[in-house]
Specification:
- Keywords: Membrane, Sugar transport, Symport, Transmembrane, Transmembrane helix, Transport.
- By secondary structure, this protein is mainly alpha-helical.
- It has a domain of 209 residues: MFS general substrate transporter like domains (Growth Hormone, Chain: A).
- Helices cover 79% and strands 0% of the residues.
- The chain contains 18 helices and no strands.
- Helix 4 packs antiparallel against helix 5 and helix 10 runs antiparallel to helix 11.
- The longest helix is centred in the C-terminal third of the chain and has 33 residues.
- The radius of gyration is 23 Å and the shape is globular.
Length: 360
């Protein structure tokens, strides 16, 4: 529903909202930690009903998108009226024509999960798998899940550990706001690359401090503990204005309508799968290799930054219905989705039609 020139900023509102939610949860935990008789954790868990209520009631008032109206009902008049309301102008015919064209392609292409594995969608498939996979290998959910445990491990007390989680999340929230302001000006690739470099340096710094100063008795000088906190704030900010919001923005942009639902489903599935893996393994890995854990995260961030540099083209301000042209111009993907790739795909489709059609 967002216009192309503001799509990045509006989509980043998703990550900002998540960050604000985590911030509120961290503040709540800090406030209730000292309540007696176990009321602290009961209040913390039960308050999750508040956003759930907002989601349920808010969903009643959500309009459908113009593309969905066209795809489901074929009602271009209703879609045009909604598009004019969203854009604040009556000059929407070109965009409407693009939506109708994309919808016609989508109707002709049944089975989006089968379709996304075709050669012409190979770049999109690679990105919807790799971007969320790398997202979790930054180590961000280590901060979301285990920040208080980490800060207590390096010598901060319980209240200070929870307050440290609040501080890191404040940094993330401000970084999300910065991302909303600059993503459509500087583009997706620059944010991916600069944020990646920022996270690499942060993880290396944390690993180096822990390797040098974390004592065998499990304690660390308070000055170094606060230095770790500052470095983790830099790391969280780097994630929050790059890989955090862009993990959901870029796959949405690059997938055409006929495979968009499949692409987004894969993104969410990979995020949840890797969240589970990281959540279940981090503490064991930390106990085993200690500071090496952060060097491992830094190595993964190096790999994913290189992948973005080599294989992800810029998509800012480009209408989603015209996104396939980006891949045809890319130095690597044009070999797969260019003219030769189209010929191979057309030949395969002809063969499939022959197999599916009944013999006369």
């Amino acid at each position: 529903m967002a216009p192309p020139q503001y799509r990045g900023a509006i989509n980043n509102g998703f990550e900002l909202s998540i960050s604000i939610g985590i911030l509120i949860a961290n503040i709540l935990n800090y406030c209730v930690v000292k309540l007696a008789a176990g009321w602290g954790w009961r209040i913390s868990l039960s308050m999750a009903a508040v956003p759930a209520t907002f989601l349920t009631i808010g969903a009643i008032f959500l309009p459908e998108t113009p593309s969905f109206i066209i795809q489901r009902d074929g009602d271009t008049d209703k879609a045009r009226a909604l598009l004019q309301k969203l854009r604040g102008t009556t000059s929407v015919q070109n965009e409407l024509d693009d939506l109708v064209s994309a919808s016609n392609l989508s109707r002709a292409a049944r089975y989006p999960f089968r379709k996304i594995f075709k050669r012409k969608y190979r770049p999109q498939l690679a990105m919807v798998l790799l971007i969320p996979f790398f997202n979790q290998l930054t180590g961000i959910n280590v901060m979301n899940f285990y920040a208080p445990v980490m800060f207590r491990t390096i010598g901060l007390k319980e209240s200070a550990s929870l307050l440290s989680s609040v501080v890191t999340r404040l940094c993330a929230t401000f970084a999300n706001i910065i991302a909303m302001l600059v993503v459509d000006r500087f583009g997706r690739r620059k944010l991916f690359l600069v944020g990646g470099i920022q996270m690499i340096l942060s993880q290396l710094a944390v690993g180096a401090i822990l390797a040098a100063e974390f004592k065998d008795n499990g304690l660390m000088d308070k000055d170094y503990a606060f230095l770790v906190l500052i470095t983790m704030c830099v790391f969280v900010a780097g994630f929050a204005w790059s890989w955090g919001p862009l993990t959901f923005l870029v796959p949405t942009e690059i997938c055409p309508l006929e495979i968009r639902s499949a692409g987004q489903s894969i993104v969410v599935a990979v995020v949840f799968l890797m969240t589970f893996v990281i959540g279940q393994t981090f503490l064991a890995v930390l106990c085993r290799i200690k500071s090496g854990t952060f060097f491992l995260f830094a190595a993964w961030i190096c790999v994913m930054t290189l992948v973005v540099y080599l294989f992800l083209p810029e998509t800012k301000k480009l209408p989603m219905e015209q996104m396939e042209q980006v891949w045809r111009r890319h130095w690597f993907w044009k070999k797969i989705v260019g003219e030769e790739g189209d010929k191979e795909e057309e030949e395969k489709e002809r063969q499939e039609k022959k197999i599916d059609s009944p013999s006369s």
